[in-house]
Every structure is written in C-alpha cells, then in structure tokens.
Design brief:
The chain contains no helices and 10 strands. A hairpin with a 3-residue loop joins strand 2 (about 20-30) and strand 3. It has strands spanning about 10-15, 20-30, 30-35, 40-45, 55-60, 65, 70, 80-85, 90-95, 100-110. The strands form 3 sheets. A 5-stranded antiparallel sheet has the order 6-3-2-1-7, with no helix packed on it. A 3-stranded antiparallel sheet has the order 8-9-10, with no helix packed on it. It has a two-stranded antiparallel ribbon with strand order 4-5. It is mainly β. The protein folds into 2 domains: about 1-70, Roll (SH3 type barrels); about 80-110. The two termini are about 25 Å apart.
Length: about 110
C-alpha cells in the first residue's frame, strides 16, 4: 500500500490503456486503486425479476498503484518527505515553479 496516495486524492494514470486520464481515488487496497472514470468495464447482470430486466452495469475496476501518480495541481508531481524543523512532523511536499508546496502531513508521526 502506498503511503502517499489516499482516498480522495487526484491522480493521473501514467501507464496502461487509460494513460493520461485523471480522476479521484475512490478505493484503496494493498496494491490496487480504483480511480473515478478509469479502467471502466461492463458487467452483464441477469434479470432479478420479470419487472426488472437484464442490464449492463459499467463500473470502475482496480488498477495497480504503480500505474498512477499524484496530481494535486492537475499535473503529475513527484512527492518527497520533508521533516519540519519546528514541530518535527513529517510533511509530504512537491515542487512547483521552483517552490516547495505542502501537499499534506504524513500520519501523526513525530521524528526524534
């Protein structure tokens, strides 16, 4: 499971059939993520009753976590961990236009 990707984060697919698509993370597993609007498959459902006929349901399927990259500002970014000198907390940051931008704090984990 990735320490950096969480449910609700915006990601970009960097490999596979849906390369370049963006979406929010809906579900997170150990090695797979489900991204909104990515890797959509059709599932054929039998008729449950005579009133409700057979139907085709389109749903997102999981993709491997290594095939997605964080994209908080719309473009994929490389993130790194930085330790705040004052509070000794771990922060997840990325660079944008030469400046470091805080993405979020890493779980409540104090160093030192």
């Amino acid at each position: 499971m990735s320490k950096w990707i969480r449910i609700g984060d915006t990601v970009v697919v960097i490999a596979g059939n849906d390369k370049g698509k963006k979406g929010k993370v809906l579900r997170l597993g150990k090695t797979k993520v489900v991204v909104q609007g990515v890797n959509i498959r059709a599932k054929h459902m039998k008729a449950e009753s005579e009133q409700k006929g057979a139907q085709i349901i389109r749903t997102e399927m999981p993709i491997h976590i290594s095939n997605v990259m964080l994209a908080p500002a719309g473009n994929p970014v490389k993130v790194r961990v930085k330790i705040d000198e004052k509070t000794k907390e771990k922060l997840l940051v990325y660079r944008e236009n030469g400046n470091e931008v805080l993405h979020r704090k890493v779980k409540k984990h104090v160093v030192g």
